[in-house]
């Protein structure tokens, strides 16, 4: 497939990693082969036409165009979007995460590549994403069009520069979305939110929008099909999603968190908001396992505790 890309590799012990793999993926109802290829054709049409229509659309109308494209893409993936706004009236935006011209840092857990599409369908945002995405065929061009901020996770020395870029974009009034876990999980188990990128919200005095994102099957049960985990390539994951039937992606907007002055405390507050009653107990000394739905995986933070002490100033 022309959109294929390799799974992420973890060359250092302090790099974010997930123990989730193929054993986490539980099948759901599927569509037939003809329907799958029709969906694929629809996605190809959207991907190829998006740059053309973006260039031809006045800047003042591009956000609406991007939102419509993202919603159409979810339809081609066989997903319905459900938005739940738990924010008080004084925080609720007229359209999505924030009112036009109002900066906000959007944070959520990371399950798979479709997370980006789902968030964009709520309101267009720029993303912090793995640097090699810019080199992917076709998708790399789309990443540039949406002003992705690349991060090279294998190089800690570049992290302060990325944080500075995010802070500047926020100070300029932009909306930025990031996945503070630093890697993908299956959606039933999850990692802790690394605090480094939250410094951008503090430096720019920007509020943070915690988002609870999950995928459900047609029975309303949490679904792991979109999980981009283990040895998955993009082609593997895309075929699995395109064959699925009846999925709903649910976006829950929790009350805004003010940045404060401590990025670790801000990360903890946002993690609590994103996880709700199911949040992980990472960092608690007597916790060795993450229990979430049918998935039970060992908490990798325990094995990496010493490494994370060394890298604490960065992450």
Automatic annotation (TrEMBL):
Residue ranges constituting the Phospholipid/glycerol acyltransferase domain according to the UniProt record: 104-216
GO molecular function terms attached to this record: acyltransferase activity
Keyword Glycosyltransferase: no
Any Pfam family: Acyltransferase
Coiled-coil blocks: none
Keyword Transmembrane assigned: no
The entry's keywords: Acyltransferase, Lipid biosynthesis, Lipid metabolism, Transferase
Pathway: Lipid metabolism
Name of the protein: Lysophospholipid acyltransferase family protein
Organism in which the protein naturally occurs: Nocardia rhizosphaerae
Lineage of origin: Bacteria, Bacillati, Actinomycetota, Actinomycetes, Mycobacteriales
């Amino acid at each position: 497939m022309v959109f294929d890309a390799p799974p992420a590799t973890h060359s250092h012990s302090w790099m974010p990693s997930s123990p989730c793999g193929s054993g986490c993926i539980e099948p759901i109802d599927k569509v037939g082969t003809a329907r799958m290829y029709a969906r694929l054709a629809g996605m190809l049409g959207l991907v190829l036409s998006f740059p053309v229509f973006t260039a031809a659309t006045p800047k003042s109308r591009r956000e609406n165009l991007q939102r419509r494209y993202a919603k159409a893409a979810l339809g081609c993936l066989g997903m319905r979007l459900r938005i739940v706004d738990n924010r008080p009236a004084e925080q609720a935006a007229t359209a999505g995460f924030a009112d036009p011209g109002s900066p906000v840092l959007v944070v959520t857990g990371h399950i798979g590549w479709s997370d980006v599409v789902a968030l964009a369908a709520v309101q267009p945002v720029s993303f912090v994403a793995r640097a090699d995405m810019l080199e992917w065929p076709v998708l790399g061009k789309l990443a540039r069009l949406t002003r992705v901020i690349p991060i090279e996770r294998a190089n800690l020395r570049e992290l302060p520069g990325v944080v500075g870029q995010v802070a500047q974009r926020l100070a300029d009034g932009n909306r930025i979305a990031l996945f503070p876990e630093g890697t993908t999980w299956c959606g039933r188990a999850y990692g802790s939110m690394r605090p480094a990128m939250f410094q951008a919200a503090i430096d720019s005095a920007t509020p943070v929008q915690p988002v609870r994102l999950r995928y459900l099957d047609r029975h309303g049960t949490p679904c792991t099909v979109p999980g981009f985990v283990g040895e998955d390539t993009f082609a593997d994951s895309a075929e699995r999603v395109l064959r699925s039937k009846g999925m709903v992606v649910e976006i829950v907007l929790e009350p805004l968190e003010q940045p404060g002055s401590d990025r670790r405390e801000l990360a903890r507050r946002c993690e609590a908001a994103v996880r709700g009653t199911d949040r992980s107990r990472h960092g608690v000394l007597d916790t060795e396992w993450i229990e979430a739905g049918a998935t039970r995986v060992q908490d990798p933070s325990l094995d990496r505790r010493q490494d994370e002490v060394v890298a604490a100033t960065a992450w």
